[in-house]
Amino acid sequence: MSKRKHRRKTNKILDRKAGLKPGSVTVPTQSYPPRFFLMSFNEEYLDELEFKSYEELLRQVKAKPEARHWIDIRGYGDQNLLEQLQQDFGLHALQMEDVINDYQRPKVEEFDKNRLFIISRMLRWSPEFKSLDDVQLSLFTGPNYVLSLQSDYGDCLDPLRERIRVGKGIIRHRPTMYMAYAILDVVLDYYFPVMADIGEYIEDLEQQVIRTPSRDNLSLILDLKSELVRLRRITWPERDKMTEILRMDDQVIPESMKAYFRDAYDHSVQLIDLVESHKELASSLVELHMSTVSNRMNEIMKVLTIISSIFIPLSFIVGLYGMNFAHENPDTGKVHPFSMPELYQPYSYPILLALMLVLILLQLYFFYRKGWFRSF
Length: 376
Description:
By secondary structure, this protein is α+β, with helices and mostly antiparallel strands. The chain has a domain at 1-173: Beta Polymerase, domain 2 (2-Layer Sandwich), CATH 3.30.460. 56% of the residues lie in helices and 14% in strands. It has helices at 3-17, 54-63, 79-88, 93-101, 158-166, 176-189, 191-211, 215-246, 255-321, 348-369; strands spanning 35-41, 46-51, 68-74, 107-111, 115-126, 131-141, 145-150. A 7-stranded mixed beta sheet has the order 2-1-3-7-6-5-4, sandwiched between helices. Strand 1 (35-41) and strand 2 (46-51) form a beta hairpin. The longest helix is centred in the C-terminal third of the chain and has 67 residues, at 255-321. The radius of gyration is 37 Å and the shape is rod-shaped.
């Protein structure tokens, strides 16, 4: 998604919220039709299905109460679905409003007997537009399920799905809260490739600025700074979210689970450090651009100064002998004592040219000894 499209999307969200009562759940314009995915598993088996309707998915969940379920709904383009989800899973209208607004800051809320409502943001770096594309991921935890909601069809959670399929690790042996952690952990892990791509882009911009400082490069640097500001607004709440999870009661997050969330907290701190370092590098790029432009201007001024210095004495000589004061009075034939006798010498013109050439060579030698030609 380009930055311009992202700004239009954000403005539409803000316009839609203005004047509505709290808890208003309205399908956003141009929303994708919903798709329904379900992964039901325990230590012994795994069922992975895509359903054509929400009713079929719900029947499958109720048919296997002993299993753990990852209910994955992608797309918000059905008003009836939103109302049905709110009713069937006991969700608050304000929570559904946060889900549908689709540009909430990362956060966690405890509700309804130790259930959690979690918002994260999945990041992608667009090499084409040189901008961030982020999609909101909303999670609701239950006794035997995790319900995930997102507006887009694509996400970064395929590695986790593959781990569940092949049965690697302990995810199929742990309660659903561990699955919620695993989802959050994968989302955070995908921030690091984004940071690496941004770091490479900053290095490329630095080389471009050194080679050809231009307004286009300055515009790219300023766009990058705005993207890093947006990234900072995402990563800092991620750390706050993990901090709040770690402070929750052991009945909500068991002590055995907090070790995993501490690891996620460490990742969020590392991300903040990377964002701050990238912001400093982006700021230094502006200074580098200004310094490079100033250096190039100094080089231009040096060339013009050399040219002017060469022609100033030549202009003086030419101007002096261009006055053409008369050598003698044409009426009386009397020679003036303070005239220019050189003008009437037989070799005055080539002598003057030779003198001007010597002056040019002397000046060039002087500039060379001063080191003015070394940067050319």
